[in-house]
Amino acid sequence: MRNLICVVILLMMLTTPINGDRKFVKKICKTTENYELCMEYVWADPRAPEADTRTLAIIMIDTVKAKSKVTDKLIKRLLKSHPDLKVPLEQCAWDYEVVILKTLIKVAYDGVILGDPKFAEEAMTKLPFTTIGCENHFAGHKSPLTHLNKLVGELADVTRDVIRNLL
């Protein structure tokens, strides 16, 4: 009986803070232009229940980075299988490898971690323009990256809005 009481108390302790923290996550996500997308990706991260605003920003930057890596890997596969799209795919590869992953994501992390979020906000504001640029490289062709470019751009917009809570 004593063990059962301990288990019940432990379960109550574990669920109460999560409910309170879910309210905090909802509050921050409501400040974004896409509440549903914010909640979907933030709440999927195990850090979310204990997150402060800075951690939520890091979670979203991590999400943008992960989806950008997925897109970059797809571009590399498509380069091998679609020689007819070589030029736009190479341009998109540069957009993702150099501009997004090596520059904008790094600036965003540094801005949040080092306590100067205006640089992180600016990086996430610029990122969707890079994904649009990738789409535009396919002028005259159907882009095989439309869905991922759109998703990465939308995630960057949500990330920018989360970062604005740090300003």
Task: Give structural notes.
It is a single chain. The chain is built from six helices and no strands. With 167 residues, the protein is mainly α. The protein has one domain: Invertase/pectin methylesterase inhibitor family protein (Butyryl-CoA Dehydrogenase, subunit A, domain 3), CATH 1.20.140.40. The longest helix has 29 residues, at 53-81. 33% of the residues are buried.
In short:
The chain has 167 residues and is an all-alpha fold. 80% of the residues lie in helices and 0% in strands.
Key terms:
mainly alpha; single chain; Butyryl-CoA Dehydrogenase, subunit A, domain 3; 167 residues; 80% helix
- Shape assignment: elongated
CATH arch. level architecture: Up-down Bundle
Oligomer: single chain
Beta-strand percentage?
under 5%
Following the backbone from N to C, one meets helices and strands in this order, namely: HHHHHH
| Straight-line distance between termini | 51 Å
Please provide the count of β strands. Answer: 0
Tally of contiguous helical segments: 6
Count of domain modules: 1
Alpha carbon gyration radius: 19 Å
* Main beta-sheet annotation: none
CATH class division = Mainly Alpha
Protein structure class: mainly alpha
Under CATH, the homologous superfamily reads: Invertase/pectin methylesterase inhibitor family protein
Determine the CATH topology: Butyryl-CoA Dehydrogenase, subunit A, domain 3
